[in-house]
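re: that complex we talked abt at group meeting.

here r the seqs, copy pasted straight from the sheet so there may be weird spacing, ignore it
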Amino acid sequence: MDADSDVALDILITNVVCVFRTRCHLNLRKIALEGANVIYKRDVGKVLMKLRKPRITATIWSSGKVICTGATSEEEAKFGARRLARSLQKLGFQVIFTDFKVVNVLAVCNMPFEIRLPEFTKNNRPHASYEPELHPAVCYRIKPLRATLQIFSTGSITVTG
Amino acid sequence: EVAYSQSTGQKEQLSRCLQRGIRRVQDLCKVLQLPRVFEETAVSYFQRAVQHSAFHLVSLEKKELLGGCCVFVTCRQHNWPVTMGTICSLLYAKQELFASVYLSLQKELELSVPALSLADLVKTHLNSFRLFQHTDDVPAPFVEDKEKVVARTMQMVELASETWLVTGRHPVPIVTAAAFLSWQSLQPGARLSCTLGRFCKLAGVDLPPPAHLRLKEFLEILLRMASQLAWLRVFKLDKKTVVKHIGDLLQHRIFLLKNAFCQEDGEEQGAEAPSEGSPSSPPAAGGVAQEKGGKRQREGGPRPLLPPCLINPRKRLRTAAPSPSDSAITGDEPISDSEIEQYLRGPEEIRAFSKAKAW
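got the structure back, here u go
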């Protein structure tokens, strides 16, 4: 690729993970009984609740900690988390929506060229690590940004962090 | 007065766990017949790792694997070709757990681990094949000279590197498939009827499941190359018969690859002279661009030299592009009660559900 050529790359956010706390104890059995779209995992002590709009999955612990995954933007994640908190309020819990934080964003991007992974790794140590016996992609860590990139030979890149 | 620990050197003693671990590392090095310096390095890594906060309190199972990981890292740092599969089989360990311990070790101790060299792996992997000596299990026509098989397998593996068959793939199935084709091509008359499974059984090695796919990819590449070789055009070659001509194809592989596969920038095909000494190794260090060959395949013409997963892509569910209404979300919109009602069960539903679940 030339430095002068203008190639627009689409970066698509595919998943946003956020957490929040309800500041009250949650009765998981009651949520499983009275909530719709709920899966109760008694053995690990958590409840999964799925919302349709936005399309997110919430993992709820009795301590009041909730993790939401599946949103495609930070705003959507916040909206989904608030919706979930309202649902819990409607079930009768004294929920206070606090400590909301986005903890992880996953995005994908496609390069318009293929990448020779062994050579790429050789020229980008120590940031790049390539173990073909374990995973078909190069793992490239950017420590200052706390981001990890998975670089595939097809040019597809997955960014998490 | 002198404290008991000072007089008996109690603090200088190694813990039982550490002693056992060091013995295990030393035994592994002996089994793998590694040089003495490897053993010393592996033991020092193990001592560092066990004293590190990330590994000090892990389970005994993980500490056993830690020793294997230290040996593995040492071998890789000295370009001694050994695979994770070998270490896992010696330790009777699950590969997933070994992988997680290995990655943690690499990160916590900040160890630099060079890539595994395929060329070296070919030599060590073929050392374990039992086809190079006359035995009762191996018929005479199947016995082959080791040096010839190794040399041809190395060329096949180089060909695989140049044609995108190696990048992102597990190395052992590629070496197995390359060895099989090389062995067949040295005496095709007697060996064409032998399958890959039988070959591995005779050689006394496991057949890795992806080897069949790698074999198929190899044969496809060879058939395309054969179509560019003048004296083979008159023959109607197929996946069996092309094996007889592997020697010729490998000898002229630079020229044949250039003619059999196209580049996106529309280089002239066919009439070009053989390459003027341009390296057969993959393009520029920096691992940067090859122009994408395009996913279309021109009928009857050379196809782009691309990774197989781009030539035959699997169907993927495409996520819908965000609509304008989705992109207008701020996260702080008001939420009406009616929106929430859909996530709550009605009283009758709750009664029926609790009856059914009987909690």
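couple things i noticed - Chain B touches chain A through 57 residues (CB under 8 Å). Confidence is low (pLDDT under 50) at residues 265-299 of chain B.
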